[in-house]
Design goal:
Structural class: alpha/beta
GO molecular function, one term: DNA-binding transcription factor activity
CATH architecture of the largest domain: 3-Layer(aba) Sandwich
Number of domains: 3
Protein name: LysR family transcriptional regulator
Number of helices: 11
Order of helices and strands: HHHEEHEHEHEEHEEHEHHEEH
Strand content: 15-25%
Distance between the termini: 61 Å
Radius of gyration: 30 Å
Low-confidence stretches: none
Number of strands: 11
Keywords: DNA-binding, Transcription, Transcription regulation
Family: Belongs to the LysR transcriptional regulatory family.
Shape: elongated
């Protein structure tokens, strides 16, 4: 059996137009070419598709059953061709993006929507991880792009473009001991348990770790739950409060008296110089670069 796309288009058009001659006019072909194509299709399928009694061909039940599948099959064939063309032009077969846990409350999905509009056939996979693990995924090429906080020290393999600023705030449950003070000293911070979002690799020290006593988790959702339970204080994205005003009733933002830690960071789109980026990854990087130029 050797069915091609043109035969399917002709078959579909004949049923919809009601005759070989009407289908021929619609397709810009001579009626004999349409008739020949249908005859060859019937031979290939070993099915009688049209009863040719009278002036117009009448679709058989078998033809009507196949017609229901034809349009979807033609759509899939066009999608296959588009994907093959995109791949030949450098589109990656899949794009893996890792988003740092604390940034899941930002509008990162806007960039995914942009990619979907530009490359509708692209397979996109999203992962979330603490900052240190996100960098590992990037450097071992498990992910091509990462949305991360800026780092004081960059690896030589890293390349990045800045997206925006994002604020983090130190918080505690309103009935937690630290929350009873108008200003919190550095010594109080050292001695109070901190709930810290950190890599699962315990040999890696978290960047925002201040307390001698700490519990670790790999995402800010569980960190927030433990902080609200009064199990410790921690650092959470300010955006969480903007999206969930009820948190303001349960958590207090702490004021540090002895020092002012850096809690405002640039968010970067990061990639590895060693990774050969495809068309979609390059498109997103260039889009963000153009955005920065226009906003300056």
């Amino acid at each position: 059996m050797n069915i091609n796309q043109e035969q399917l288009i002709i078959f579909k058009t004949v049923i919809e137009a009601g005759s070989f001659s009407a289908a021929a006019r619609k397709l810009g072909k001579v009626p004999s070419a349409v008739s020949m194509s249908i005859s060859n299709l019937e031979i290939d399928l070993n099915l009688n598709l049209f009863n040719r009694i009278g002036r117009e061909p009448i679709p058989t039940p078998q033809a009507l059953s196949l017609y229901e599948k034809t349009e979807q099959l033609l759509i899939e064939m066009n999608q296959w061709k588009q994907q093959a063309s995109a791949l030949s032009n450098g589109l990656e077969s899949a794009l893996n993006i890792v988003v740092v846990s604390e940034l899941l409350h930002t509008h990162w999905t806007d960039y995914i929507s942009l990619l979907e509009q530009e490359f509708p056939e692209l397979q996109i996979n999203i992962f979330s991880a603490p900052q240190e693990d996100a960098l590992k995924l990037l450097m071992n090429q498990s992910a091509q792009l990462a949305l991360m906080f800026e780092r004081e020290q960059l690896e030589s393999r890293e390349q990045f473009v800045e997206l925006k600023r994002e604020a983090l705030v130190p918080v505690a449950a309103k009935d937690y001991p630290l929350a009873q003070f108008e200003h919190v000293s550095f010594e109080q911070i050292l001695q109070s348990r901190q709930i810290v979002v950190a890599s699962r690799d315990r040999t890696i020290k978290p960047e925002l770790l201040y307390s001698k006593r700490n519990w670790r988790t790999d995402n800010h959702h569980s960190a927030c739950a433990m902080i609200m339970q009064g199990l410790g204080w921690g650092v959470l994205p300010l955006e969480m409060f903007n999206e969930n005003p009820s948190l303001k009733k349960q958590l207090k933002i702490l004021n540090f008296s002895d020092f002012t830690p850096k809690f405002e960071y640039f968010v970067d789109l990061v990639w590895s110089r060693e990774t050969e980026l495809g068309a979609a990854a390059r498109f997103l990087i260039n889009h963000i670069r153009k955005q920065r130029i226009h906003t300056k």
